Amino acid sequence: MVVNKFDLELLIATNEELETYVSSVLSQVEQWLMTQTINQVVLVIVSKETKKTLERWVFDVKALEPPPGAPPKPDSEVQAEVRSMLAGIRGTNSMLSDIQEPALCNILAYIADDGQDAAADGWEDTHTHAIEMDSATEVKLKKASTSVHQIQATVVYRDD
Predict the structure, then answer these.
(1) Helices (H), the chain
(2) pTM score of the predicted model
(3) Are the C-beta atoms of residues 40 and 109 closer than 8 Å to each other?
(4) Which residue, 46, 62, 50, 22, is CA-closest to 128?
């Protein structure tokens, strides 16, 4: 399904299971953002058959300390940065290989080691799903920031 968000036409998944999974994950990520304990969110696309990581989307999260008394960043400016980041993500379609095999997606979250037990929130340790750089390409996308967070997006994908 195509929707218009931030003045961009974006494809949205209509798989109910996937929507439930992503909503659950994003709910937890939102809590970690509010407590500034999350450092990175990673979306990996993995071959169902070979278990090889095909794409690895990294969203580095940096907590910002605004100067005392500084006004919040205007919503219009935040939305413009998000729109630019989404346009960059959408633009990667021309570079990425067309995945023809059945694939799975997984979302990884990296949180600060502050004694918080992520397993208690239903998360478990897993491997990084890294892609060997000798067989991959890395593309850094534009940053987006609010008054309290900055996000840097990067995609690494297999060349083979």
Answers:
(1) 16-34, 75-91
(2) 0.84
(3) yes
(4) 46
Specify the residue for token string 């959408």.
90
6: left (phi over 0), alpha (psi -120 to 50) or beta: left
Are 104 and 51 in contact by the 8 Å Cβ rule? The answer is no
Neighbours of 127 (CB within 10 A): 8
CB 77 within 8 A of CB 84: no
Show pLDDT as tens, one digit a residue, over the chain (160 residues). 777 877 777 767 788 888 898 899 999 999 988 888 899 999 999 999 999 999 999 999 998 888 888 888 899 998 888 888 888 888 887 778 888 899 998 999 998 876 555 555 677 778 889 999 888 999 999 899 988 899 999 999 988 7
